[in-house]
Each structure stands twice: as C-alpha cells, then as structure tokens.
Amino acid sequence: MTSQTQTKTTNNKISSYLMLIILIVVALAVVALFLAVQTFIEGGSDNQLAAIMLAGIGLIALAIAGFLIHQSRKQAAEVKLEIPKVMTIIECQNKGCNNKTIREFQRGDYVFKELDVTCPKCNGRQMITAAYKEIREKEKTYAV
User: Fold this and answer.
1) 131 has which bridge partners?
2) Burial class (CB in 10 A: 0-12, 13-18, 19+), 142
3) CB-hemisphere CA count at 13 Å for 33?
4) 66 versus 136: which is more confidently predicted?
5) Mode of pairing for the β-strands spanning 5-7 and 114-118
6) How far apart are alpha carbons 14 and 74 in whole angstroms?
7) What own/partner pairs with CB < 8 Å and gap ≥ 24 does 71-78 have?
8) In the chain, what are the helix, strand and coil shares in percent, each to the nearest 5?
9) What is the pLDDT of residues 101-142, one digit of tens each?
10) What is the pTM of this model?
C-alpha cells in the first residue's frame, strides 16, 4: 500500500461489444471490396464509378475499424486505479488520559481491538476505535 496510484494491468483487453461491432464493420468492408472488384471486372467501363465508390467505402470502413482497435487498446493501457489510504485511530482506555494516535491501517486491525502496546503517556491499555479511508479531492483542471 505504499504507492498511491497503480496502473491496471489489462493486457490491452477490448470489450466484447466493441469487438463485435469491429468484426461487423470489417465483414461489411470486405464485402464492399469484393463487390467493387466484381463490379469492375464484370461491368467494364459502364460501372467503373460504382466500383470506385464501393472500393472507397470498403477502405474507409477498414480504416475506421483499425482506428477503433488502436484507440480502445490505447485507452485500456492508460487506465489507472487510485488506492486510498486507510487509517486507524488508536485511543487510550483510561478515562483521564486523552491520548489518541493515528497510524496507517495494518492487516488484522479491526474496531474495538485491544492492543498489546501500552499508552506512551500513562502506560494504560490501548484500543482501536475507528478505521477510515482518506478521501482526497481530485485536482480541478480548467480548460484554457
């Protein structure tokens, strides 16, 4: 828990819905390119414009699919998780002593746990009275 920000290791995973959309776009692009070649070969000079338009549509669709894959992998790699600090409050159980200590949470801590460590002020018994996570406000960014 020493580092506050960790990079999520996603291995560049892409959501299944996005992958399905990309596969459909690629399939339609391949069909458009196939039709463009077929129209160009069979149609002669009459259908050259239709063949060129179909080829353009197919190439644009392939470019869009490639761009979507690139962007989704890039975003998955940049996902960061911020792990909040968890703190523990330890108070002395003696009525007259108001000693309070705050330290970082340790494994096995729980509220109302009596500790073996004695109070540094009065040598009384100490107990964990609270555990909480620190909430930091996100830095505000302003568009310039």
Assistant:
1) 88
2) exposed
3) 12
4) 66
5) unpaired
6) 10
7) 72/14, 72/15, 72/18, 73/12, 73/14, 76/10, 76/12, 76/13, 76/14, 77/10, 77/12
8) 40, 20, 40
9) 899 998 988 898 988 888 888 888 899 999 988 877 766 666
10) 0.46
Residue with tokens 């149609």: 43
Q: How far apart are CA 137 and CA 8, in angstroms?
A: 21
pLDDT at 52 over 50: yes
Residue 88: partners with Cβ closer than 8 Å, 6 or more residues away: 102, 103, 104, 105, 106, 109, 128, 130, 131
Please give the distance of CA 37 from its chain centroid, rounded to a whole number.
43
- Which is nearest to 74 in space by CA: 4, 10, 6? 10
Q: Tokens representing 28?
A: 């339609």
- 109 sits in the region (left: phi over 0; alpha: psi -120 to 50; else beta) called beta
- Residue 33 — pLDDT band, cuts 50, 70, 90? very high
Per the DSSP assignment, residues forming a β-bridge with 112 are none
Q: Could you tell me which residues come within 8 angstroms of residue 120 by beta carbon, excluding any fewer than 6 positions away? A: 99
CA–CA separation, 98 vs 113, rounded Å?
A: 18
